[in-house]
Write a structure and sequence with these properties.
With 101 residues, the chain is mainly α. Helix content is 83%, strand content 0%.
Length: 101
Amino acid sequence: SSGINAEWPLRPGEHEERTRAAIEAAKKSQQDSNKFLKETWKRVREAKRKEEMQKQKEVDRRVKTLLEFKDNLHRSQATLRKQSIKKEKSTDCDSALIPLL
């Protein structure tokens, strides 16, 4: 056999029926492939969206942490300034008393 269907010759109209069936099978296969491709891209887009959201959350967390550090630094600096001013005033008062003794 040379690979040709052994049922030759075909009965009248059988070639058209087989051709139609092959076309329908090809259409169905293409539809299934398109559906699979569409679903795959949907999953890919969703995964990318989730990844971007995670990255944004991490950026937001880091920015928040840096802003908290900045606020704490400013509070610490303000406290140190107040303590320094109080210390200067108390030192000024002590030195003012020394000549009176």
